[in-house]
Amino acid sequence: MIFLVDCNNFYVSCERLFRPELSNLPVVVLSNNDGCIISRSNEAKKLGIKMGEPLFKAKKIIQENKINVFSSNFELYGEISNRIMKELNHFSSSMEIYSIDEAFLDIDFQDYNLICENIVNQINNIIGIPISVGVGYTKTLSKIAGSIAKKLSRGYFVLDNTVITKNILSKTSVQDIWGLGNRYSNTMINNGIKTADNLVETNRNWILNKFNINVLRTREELRGISCYPISSVSEPRKSIRVSRSFKKDINSYENLEKYISDFAFLASKKLRNENKRTKELSVFIVTNRFRNTSFSNYMGFQKYSFIVSTNSYIEIIRYSILMLRKIFKGGLSYKKAGVMLSNLSLENQYQTSYLSSNQDNKLDDLMEKIDYLNDKYGKNKVLISSQNLYHKSKIDKKRLSPNYLNSWSDMPNINI
DNA sequence: TCTGGGGTCCTAGGACCC
DNA sequence: TCTGGGGTCCTAGGACCC
Fold first, then answer.
1. What residues does A36 pair with on adjacent strands?
2. Contact A19, A122 (CB under 8 A)
3. A136-170 per-position pLDDT tens digit
4. Whole-number Å distance between alpha carbons of A276 and A96
5. A139 and A177 assigned to the same domain
6. What is the rounded distance in angstroms from the CA atom of residue A297 to the CA atom of residue A157?
7. C-alpha triplet A252, A256, A261: angle, nearest 5°
8. Would you state the pLDDT for residue A37?
9. pLDDT of residue A350
10. What's residue A394's pLDDT?
């Protein structure tokens, strides 16, 4: 059986871990720039706060109900996530970490309810984060079981009986099926397919004609035929992206160049942390899509292919700037920009070229020194000169909680 | 005034080959 | 006037997920 373990209101629960006095009060966590609400406690949900809602639209509800608001502290959430995953691994070696707050586990032991109870208690006792567990024959069914589990106070639900499954599928709307987003479920509803049970009964050729193979797989999964097996070896990622929205629009090329350099540096750092090289680099800049203007929005995008894969900060930044020059248009206000690296390979597995110079070794040494200094003395101690040297950040995080787990100075004090 | 960030996969259609 | 058949590979765009 497949067990889906899902943390309840994960980011909010992480903040509450160190602020237990908030445990029954409404809490929300914001996206970067303190822009949107991306995690809500049950109390906040009940007050009508919607997922992804911009902060300014919810301001009234927040003030009237004294909702506690946090900026996102991804270092903290990542650390707590690691601890949870480590505990879960004790229940099954066949486990797939699906996201920061979710994992699928393959478990053979027959007493599913007992296992669920143990998992919920264990994570609560050892880590202190509330979770819910859904169990089914396939990932898609375990997702449905999980959404039922969230409504039960015991926190778990097992879907192993065909009659009950049929009944539940007939009450599950297509929008609530994992793998069917807005577009697909709307098309289905327009064609009379309203519930998961309707989808199960739908002709396979019609599905392939109207949609694609993944939608057919979803139908098979609903019938209990597994199409998405658990992969316990995590696949190396295929692309790396660093992008940010700016609190205030940027007009000048010089400013934008500094940010692009920063993003390229950060992306290169991620690349180097995974011991990889990149062969392809893309840069994009976009104007503010929410601005109420008569002229249409501009999105500049340019890709560059390296002759030889690289992991050099200097090379990646240099070509990012060259791409930026190609797409920058004066007189516009830019809201967001980013750098992407793709076509990745392992550090020592790449195609060389007759055209490449012999300086590579020297450059590699230099890059390693940069990493060494930044790892030893803290982030941003050594930068490339085109970067945003003085860190006048245009990205807001006004309500950030302390970094309780990853910073000596932020460690909580306990009075005994 | 203020609206996030980071991923994956599939497919149609174009470009190319003999 | 008349102009084949059968492939592969790449990419942009669109869908999805958290």
1. A54
2. no
3. 999 999 999 999 999 999 999 999 999 999 999 99
4. 23
5. no
6. 47
7. 150
8. 97
9. 83
10. 64
Q: Which residue in A117, A100, A101 sits closest to A109, CA to CA?
A: A117
Same domain, A18 and A38: yes
> What pLDDT does A398 receive?
87
Q: CB of residue A395 closer than 7 A to nucleic acid strand B?
A: yes
Classified as helix, coil or strand, A345 is strand
- Cα gap A339→A260, rounded to integer Å: 7
User: For residue range A7-19, what is the model confidence (pLDDT) as tens digits?
Assistant: 999 999 999 999 9
Q: Tell if A268 CB is < 7 Å from nucleic strand B.
A: no
The segments of chain A whose pLDDT lies below 70 read 292-295, 356-360, 391-394
Smallest CA-to-CA distance from A174 within A162, A164, A182 is with A182
- Structure tokens that stand for A267 in this block: 């992306």
Based on the domain organization, do A369 and A264 belong to the same domain? yes
- Give pLDDT, residue A270: 96
Task: Based on the fold, state whether residues A264 and A331 are members of the same structural domain.
Answer: yes
Give the model's pLDDT for residue A352.
79
**CA dihedral of A260, A262, A267, A271, whole degrees rounded to 10:** 130
Looking across all nucleic acid strands, the nucleotide with the smallest C1' to CA distance from residue A181 is C16
- Specify the CATH number for the domain of residue A247: 3.30.1490.100
A172 & A216 share domain: yes
Range of the domain at A303: 239-377
Tokens found for residue A5:
């373990």
Examine the domain organization and report whether A7 and A151 are in the same domain. yes
Nearest residue to B7 via alpha carbon and C1':
A239
Instruction: Report yes or no: A287 and A330 within 8 Å, Cβ to Cβ.
Output: no
Q: Both A372 and A274 in a single domain?
A: yes
pLDDT for A390: 73
Domain total in chain A: 3
Which nucleotide is closest, CA of A280 to its C1'?
C11
Is strand B within 7 Å of residue A54 (CB)?
Answer: yes
Residue A277 has a pLDDT of 94
